[in-house]
Every structure is written in C-alpha cells, then in structure tokens.
Input
Amino acid sequence: MGVSLRDVAHLAGVSVKTVSNVVNGYAHVSPLTRAKVEQALSELDYRPNLSARNLRQGRTGVIALALPEIDKPYFSELSRFVIAAAAEQRWIVVIEQTDGDLRRERQVLDGVRDHRIDGLILSPVAIGEEELAARTDDTALVLLGERIHDGPADHVAIDNVRAARDVTEHLIGLGRTRVAALGAQDNAASGTAPLRLAGYREAMAAHRLAETVVKVERYGRAEGAAAMSALLASADPPDAVFCFNDLLALGAMRAILSSGAGVPEDIAVAGLDDIEDGRFSTPTLTTVAPDKAQLARIAVDLLKQRLDGSVHRPAREMRADYRLLIRESTVPPLRRAASLPGDRWTGGIGPRPDVSSR
Amino acid sequence: MGVSLRDVAHLAGVSVKTVSNVVNGYAHVSPLTRAKVEQALSELDYRPNLSARNLRQGRTGVIALALPEIDKPYFSELSRFVIAAAAEQRWIVVIEQTDGDLRRERQVLDGVRDHRIDGLILSPVAIGEEELAARTDDTALVLLGERIHDGPADHVAIDNVRAARDVTEHLIGLGRTRVAALGAQDNAASGTAPLRLAGYREAMAAHRLAETVVKVERYGRAEGAAAMSALLASADPPDAVFCFNDLLALGAMRAILSSGAGVPEDIAVAGLDDIEDGRFSTPTLTTVAPDKAQLARIAVDLLKQRLDGSVHRPAREMRADYRLLIRESTVPPLRRAASLPGDRWTGGIGPRPDVSSR
DNA sequence: CAACGTTGTTTCAACGTTGTAAACAGCTGC
DNA sequence: GCAGCTGTTTACAACGTTGAAACAACGTTG
Output
C-alpha cells in the first residue's frame, strides 16, 4: 500500500494520533510539532486512505446519481450540475444507469446498502410509489423529477402540470386549434409523462379544443420522428405539437421538414427540457427550460440535510423554477434568412433573444 | 452501522470467518453449516461493508472517468459505454469534470492517490506529455483519445490523422476546392485537434489545394456558429467545411442556413464524433463515427490488465475502429421533400442509409 | 502549595473485513 | 494404535484511521 500515518509518525518522531491531528486540523498542536509533522507529511507525500477513514466514520463521501440514460442530453446536462454541486460538499458522484428498467431501478435502490454510497439521487421511471414506500433501507434518498406526492422520500421537480399547461396555452395563443400532445406513456409508474399530459389536457379543456394524444415507448429523437410521421399520415394532421421532451420535438421537427411541410408555418412545435440542441436546431426550438442548476442544488442540499441528521421529518417536496423559451419553432424570426453578425452566438444562447415567462 | 459478519456469525452459531467464507463462496464449507449461515444471512439481510473489504484488500472497486464536460454529447455517449463495460468488471464509475482545465486535470491525476479509486480513465486536453511522463503515481491510468505516443500510460483512440484525411478526401471528391478546416486550437497540449489538422493538411496537400484553417477556443455549437459566420463574411467563403467535431459542425450548419445559403448545395459540411444530434439534424450530418463501444471496452480492458498485474510492460497504444458516415450535409437525399413512411426512423439510425468505409 | 484547568501528546480500542496459520475431526493405511 | 491424510472450522492479526480516555507538563487560583 501507500504511505500511512504510521510511516509519517515514524519519520516525524511523534505518535500516529498526533499526525492524524495535524492532518485533520486539530487546534491544540504545538507549532514545533506541527512543523515537524508537516515536513514529514510532504516529504513522504502522504495521502489519507479514505477506505480506512470511511470505515472508521461510517461515511464514504460518495453519492450515486441514478438516471435512465446518461447519454440523453437532459440527463447529461443535469449531471453536470449535480457533480458540481456535490463537489462543493466534497462528495464525488457515481453514475448509475437504469435504462428506465424496473429491475435496474430496484437494484440501484438495493445496492445503496452495500455501504459504498452515503446517499442516492434517483430519477425514477418504472418503479412505483408503493414499492418506494415499502423500502426498508434508511439510506438518504432524493427523487428527481418524478410525480410522487407525499411519498416516502424527499423530491425535487418543476411544476410539470403547470409547465405543460403554459406550453399548450402558448400554442393555442398562436391561433392553432389542432394541438397534439406527443409523449404519453403507458407503463411509467413514476415518470413525468402523466403530469405533462394532465397540463396539456387542462389547457385544451379550458379552450374547448379536441385532444390528440400520441404515446411513445421511449423519449428519443427516433421515437419523436416515428410518432410524428404517423400523425402526418393521419386523416386530420395537427397544426401544432407539444412534445413531452425536446428530443421527441427534434425528431418530430425532422419528420415534418422531411415531409415538405414547414415549421412553424404549417405545424408549430414545442418541447420541454431546454437541451442545447434545441438552441441550435433549424428552426430553433420553443421549449420549457427547467432551472437545472437549481434542481441539482436542491437535490444535493436535501441529501446533505438528511445525511447530517438535521432533518428527520417527513419527506419534503421542493419545486424548481422554469421558464418558457419562445423560439423559431413556434414564432418565426422577424427577418428570415438575414445574414448574421459573426459574434451572434458567442453568448452561447440561441440566435434569437429568448422570451421568458413564469 | 448496519449488519456485520459478527451479527450473522452470532445468529448462526459459527465463527465470523466461516460466515466470511460462505459469503465469498469458499469451497470447503459443510452443507449443514452453509445452510445455517445462509439462513442467518438472509434473515438479517446482510450486506458486506465495502469500505472494510476495500481497506483489507487495498482495492475499492471504483474507477474514475475524467472528461472535459459530461454534457457534451460525445462524452456522455462514451460514458454510457464506459459505465456499461465497467459494470461487467463489477466496477462502479465516478465522473470527474475537468473542463479541459490544466489545474483540474492535475487535481484529478493527483486525487487518484487518495485510495478512493483503483484506476483512472482520462481524456486529457490541457495537460502535457512531459507532465504525464513525470507523474510518480503508480495508479493505473488509461488515456482516451489523445495524441501522446510512446507516452507514460496506455492509451486508446481512433486513428485521428487518417480519419480527418478520409473526411477531407470525401469533401474534395465531391468536387469542392475551397475546403476549410474548423476547430484548430492553440493551447491543446494533448487533445486531438493537431492530429485532425494534420490529416486535413495531408489531404489538401495531396490535391494541391489551398488550406483555410479556423481556430476555436472550445468545441461547442456556439463556437462553430461564430466561426462559420466569420468564414461566411470573409472575402472568399469556402464551399466545404470539415469541422473537428460534430457540435462545431451543427453550429456551422445553423450559421450557414441562417445566412440563406444551402447545405450542401452551397457549402458541404462534415463533422467527426457521430453524436446522435447529427443523425436527426436538418440536413443530417456527414461524420466520422468512432466505435465508442470498442473504445470504452478497450479502455476498461487496459485498466483491468494493469490492475490485476497481468501487464507491467511499457505503455500500449491501441486503435479503435471508425466509419465514415455520408449523410445529407455533403450528399443530398435522392428524393428531397418526399413524404416518409411512419416507421422510417424506428431503427434509430438516420433517415438515409449510411455509407460506410474502413 | 495544593487543587484545578489548560494545552499538548499518547495509548487504547474499535470500525468490518479477510489472509494466514493453526486447530480439530474423521478418515485411510499400515 | 499411530502417522498421515483430507476436509472443516476457528483464533488471530492486520489493513489505516480516529474517538475516548489517559497522561504529563504547565500556569492559574484560592
């Protein structure tokens, strides 16, 4: 193995515990001893063995982030913020992929107990509320973006119903009457699909418009394109589509454009997630932007409070902010095909100023 | 803490070591004892404490994957495969973000020694060859996609020079003569930019064409769009652009289309990485597809061989395969604006059959 | 000057695990 | 009856760390 406290203590001519005290910044150490120890520490290039420290303290300093798929932009963007927020607590983050699969989600919830991980942030898809409630494990758990209310664990999400309603209202506000919803799911026990569907329905009902709902198995571009193609081939194609996430929307746009129809002239398209792709697609994509940094920070904070024991009370439900970003896929740019100044994109935002609400 | 071997041993009426033997599948345990122990194990729902096990064995079962940015599609797609390949070895993966920053890359290389991690897969950007060579740490290290040869550590990458040459040859083969390269970098000590630039130059030189090289700071859509806007505004705009990654290419396409020019009619665009976005952009993006699954598997295998001590010899250099995928951004579809059958995308590939080489 | 508090340092034990070596039981073969 | 097996089980120590308690040396106080 490497250099241990023993080795350092030996070299510095003090006890192991004294070295430990220096390493941990204990106050009552004489300047002379401290100097000797620090000399020895740097001479041997000591690094604490975290396995041992963790064994002693019962903590690992590792949290898990369990997501359906890390390579879906929404999740990878979110991961970035979670990793950053965790780093502020000196935690490191392992990523677990569940593929939205029930068995895998169970495994993750189970595997928490192997003492390798202090806490878990889970984005559940397949696992049901009852099953989560029945879990005996007392490891800290935070749910991310799901629909479970008054459930067994803390959770954070945007107000999905309201966000979906806002988007649908926006589409209706453009004068569209045949607004379709794309992205409903049958088997999602705790995903956001039912909430978004509910928001869509509220808005449609408020304007006495007929609903069109298309289901998909997964939330990728391919599914969005396939579902949109089916809609286009139907007897009464929509003049606007609210897709339950941006990937579906991008796939749908691709299908519309390939069919020869125009976005938004013939069909307006809106998504939800604000992934980077939508800021640079042609046309750029109208979407709901959850405050991902805030989501991540809240999730990590909730976990922290559970871990340091400052909260034992019942599960809390936190809401993160979102903004509606209106872009070209629902409202065309004022000057179409105008040449762009070279620095137009340097801000990293879309080519058109975002209109925000909430 | 939780249930320990001690507790199980007590309940089963055997020694701690016997329980340990059962848990670890030691052969010489009598059927009767084994039954008793297993009964107790499941009754108490025992989970091994990995901190303790790791302390004892000097292994943690955790590897780190250090990337510039997890939310860049290429890296998140790659992460998916690395996590999957690591899972087969029963390793879990922590993600470290370096932002391509020298200080952070150093920290990561340094932090390996805290015994929290058995090995490291690093995608280096800023850190130089000399510095890597000077590292004293003997922790297993595998470099991913960098240009260091005969260096201090194992590494895996595609043949970047050849891939870049293939792309450039393809553009030239279309009859384009003003082929620009977009994505060179000044400060990348070990990134792939110089290799891709070299490949571009080889091809241009072979056809006696004049080179146009545009530098960028980072590899995002915004930078691609900004750089392309600058090119469009120049005295002699290109008729083809080879972008050093797909994000740059997508940004560049957006800038071209917004300017009123057509892709590929006026300017052909090609990228490198084969991120999912490029399979569904309008037009779809011609690109080089590294075999990411193979890259991940080789990286994990190299790490494994180092960890189990089966290899001590000098650093090895491994090549992963790639394919050139020719799509609409360089070769338009045969029937533009034709309506699409509904199942056209269900395979998850692009709307046009990919042409592959190598 | 004895009792007491403070500061600096050490000793001890324990966290949960597993490798080593040894103990023990039941054999076989002489 | 004994040596030498094989198979099964155990005691012990150790991995590196830190909390609790003990201790020594000091200065302060009554």
